[in-house]
Each structure stands twice: as C-alpha cells, then as structure tokens.
Amino acid sequence: MESLSILTLFFIFLLTLLFLSSLWRQQKRSHVLPPGPTPVPLLGTPNYLYRDGILRYYPEFHKKYGKMFTLWQMTDPVVVLCGYETVKDALINHTEQFSDRPLYPALDSYTKGFNFLSSNNHWRLFRRFILMTLRNVGLGKRSLEEKSLKEAELLVEAVSEMGAKSFNPTQLLSSAVTNAIGTILFGQRLDYKDQKLLDLISHIRKHSDNIFSAKQQICNMFPVLLKLPYLGQIIMKNSLCLVAYVREQLDFHKETLDLFAPPRDFIDHFLLKIKEEKGNKDSKFCDTSLIMFISSILAAGSDSTTATLKYCLAIIARFPHIQAKVQREIDDVTGSQRPPGMSDRARMPYTNAVIHELQRHLDLAPAGFYRSLTQDIAFRGYTLPKGTRILPYLSSVLFDPSQWETPDEFNPGHFLDEKGQFRAKPAFMVFSAGKRECLGVSLARMEIFLFFSALLQKFSLCPTTGAQMDMKSLRFNKRTIIQSWEICAIPRSSHTD
C-alpha cells in the first residue's frame, strides 16, 4: 500500500514537472512569436487547429491579432498567416524559406516518404519529374484536350439520361474526372457503369478520408504509437484497396511494356525511368515510389476537382440570370455544334470569370497544408525559428477586402476589367502558391472549364434541394452541398447554331 502511494506521488510529481516545463518553454518561445490565444500547457490549442476550428475561430483571430497569430499543437507553435500581402510575402517572396513541410509520421511510415507532404528532398525530385511527365503525356497539348472533350461529351450524354429529373450529379462528375486522370496515368477510360470505375472512385474517397482521419492526426502527434505492432497497418487499412488497384495497373504495364514503342501513359514513363536508373543504388525511382505518387495524384486530383464542379453546378443553378449570360456567351462563340475548347476560353471572358468566382466562393481549402521554415527568418517584425510550422489561412486571401471589391458577394466582375475582358487576380490562391502549389493545377483548370462549359451549353440548371441562403451561408454549408444537393438539368431546346 505504501509503495502504491509512493508511485502515485511520483506520477503526480512527474506530471507537475512536465506541466511547468511546458509552460516555461511556451512562455519563452512566445516572446519571439506573433500573439495568439493562450495555450494550455502540454495540450496547446488543439480545438483551433482542425477544419471546424478554422471556419469558426480564424476570422475572429484575424480581427483580434492581425496579419499573423500563433496557435499551439501541444508544445509546438503554429504561426497562421492572414491576408494577401502576408501570404504572398511568405509563399512567393520568400518561397524557399517557406517551402519545407513538418513531419507527418503516419503518412511517411506508410508511404516510405514518397508523398507530396513529405519533409525530405524527394518532393523536389519527383515534382520536377511528374511535371515533365505530365507534359510528355499531353498536358497542355491538343491530344489530351481532345480526350477530355470526348469525356465531356460522354458526361453530357449521361446527364441527358436523367431526363430532366432531380438528381445528384456527384457520381457522374466523379466518373468523368477520374476517367480524365485515369487516361493520363493508366492510358484507359472506363464506362460510367463499369464496376471497376465505381470501385476505383470508392477506393479514392476512402483513401482521402483516411489521410485526414482523426486516428492519423493522433499518430502524427504521438508518433511513438506507430511502434505498436500492427497499428500502422490498421490506420492505413482504408488505403490498401487503392494501392492494390494501382499495383494491378503496374503489373499489367510491366508485362506489356514495349521498350521500342512510345510510352503509352504516365506509368510507362515511370517504368522507363526506373530502368534508366537501375544501376544507381541511391535512386528513388522504384515500384513503391510509383505506387505511392500515383495514389497521391488520384486522391488529390479526383476528389478536389469533383467537389469543385459539383459546387459550381449547384450554385450556378441558383443564379439563373448569370447562368443565362454564360450560355449566351457560349452560344456566340461555339454555337451548339461543338463543345467549347481551351482555345475558346480567351473569347469567353465572362464564363471564365464566373468559374473563377465560383471557385473563390467555394473556398475548398480554407487553410493550406502546413509549411515549415527551412531556416531562421526575420519576417514582418518577428524572428521565426527554423522548423516553425506555418499555416497559410487562404480564406483570408480569397476574401481580403483589399483585393476584392465586394468580397462577400458573388461578383464575376472581380475577374473582369473595364472592357469586359478576363483579368487574372494574384489573390486567387485556391491552389495555394509558391513551390508547393498544387501539382495538378493545369489539369484541374482544364477539366473544370471543359466540363462546366459543356454542361451549360446543353442544359439549363435548376436547384431542387437546399433552402435559400446568402453566399456566406452557402460557403459554410459547402460539404452538404457537395455531398447531397440535387439539381435538375433541363435540355436547352433552342440556342444559336
């Protein structure tokens, strides 16, 4: 009994020591960091660091603390950057210093470090290779655009089969987007009713959910848990089906690869690179890196583009006067005989502006992925130590009143000049910015423009679910809109030929 009391006292003493040590370290480090809400020793400010916390608290913190504020992930500070000028200064003007990532132990353990969130130098090597390979397989060229235009026509046919009835277009959009990416990666497209395509879409969604799940976040915070037997396999269970699908594609390509013929797709290019570096014992090109990066491309490209398209269609259905103006522009440029192509985009400034304004209001990623400083830096009045976690608050850029005339309203004029021509806005950071900008930005922009334009050319969209809301309410309900809202697609019977 006495030994139990001594043990209890020891643990109380140890916890007190840890508490005081954490409090002392936080107070010491706080002197060189931007202000922020007071952290709880050992725990930090955990309720502010996740999605719901970002939507709920960050606007208030932005007003209270200014362009930068500090939150705490347990005993590690996270500096949040707010507003266009601050985010631009960090991600573009000081792009190299803000280009690292913090450790994601759960993800790194599963992918062996081959992922776009990695803090090692692999990402530079693979980013260059992947961008070059995407261009080699047709990105930015007419050949890939023609395949995407064909996919857009098939999407229009699938929507036509709904017969002007209320339906949720998410599955059809996901099928079209996944096929567009699959054509690049695997050199194949699948019918929208093909069980293989439906399974792939399901695998991608489960993988994406798994990467951002609470169990992964807990393992990232307490990486010692990953040393427990089988835990790593358990937390990545929902990603294994996607890996198995990609491995099946890899095995097929290995069996059918023709060294004397032009590469068929992304996998062929990657396999040829593996063969090229076969004698290099330090090469990072291997089956594992191929599988992990293709899985990442599928997850990052399919879900985000599908969500963007669904939101665009659901919202434009609630603005019939804007929708009609887009349709008139499409009719004037292409008529009804062919869908709009990328070469038409310059002659469709209003359509392009509407798409950009829809994406701005969607605000799909309110905060970018964590960055990490590569060195100590004096930044906007503070001395930030090497390794400090940085969180770009992208919502504050997309709704910065210094950059947008009417930030809280839906106003395509934000992207039009006085002559009605499209104008790019540097504060349009929906794909983040700098050296860690979204890798598939060019592909996503092409798919969104081609699919959105093709659908509005053939259909007038009407809302069938969801109460009337202002734009702010729509934005805060975007997850429900993307997942479950339905629309009605009425064929346009008469427009300019």
Automatic annotation (TrEMBL):
It comes from the Eukaryota. The keyword DNA repair does not apply. Heme binds at C438. One of its GO terms (biological process) is epoxygenase P450 pathway. Its cofactor is heme. One of its GO terms (cellular component) is cytoplasm. It is found in: Membrane. It is an enzyme of class 1 (oxidoreductase). Its EC number is 1.14.14.1. GO terms for molecular function: arachidonate epoxygenase activity; heme binding; iron ion binding; oxidoreductase activity, acting on paired donors, with incorporation or reduction of molecular oxygen, reduced flavin or flavoprotein as one donor, and incorporation of one atom of oxygen. Keywords: Heme, Iron, Membrane, Metal-binding, Monooxygenase, Oxidoreductase. Transmembrane segments: none annotated. Belongs to the cytochrome P450 family. This is Cytochrome P450 family 2 subfamily C member 8 like. It comes from Xenopus tropicalis (Western clawed frog). The gene is cyp2c8l.
